[in-house]
């Protein structure tokens, strides 16, 4: 290991309430037909973040310009939407 880096980064997340319903049914084994929707990401976007707290293998803070920061590529939700629960085909 050459270095480890950390930093505080704010990222988007999907959370919220989606309309779901349940109704009596003579067709299903439970006697009820459920239609559940869950809030999930609809699109992800790639973003580059800079971590500014970098340390060598001995735990000493790196100060030299090339090694004092690290760029990391991450994917985060760009849009959230209510999807049918259990539908992971997206």
UniProtKB/TrEMBL annotation:
Any one annotated GO CC term: bursicon neuropeptide hormone complex
Gene3D superfamilies listed in its UniProt record: Cystine-knot cytokines
GO molecular function terms listed in the Swiss-Prot or TrEMBL record: G protein-coupled receptor binding; neuropeptide hormone activity
GO biological process, one term: G protein-coupled receptor signaling pathway
Taxonomy, superkingdom: Eukaryota
Stored PANTHER family: PARTNER OF BURSICON
Protein name stated in the entry: Partner of bursicon
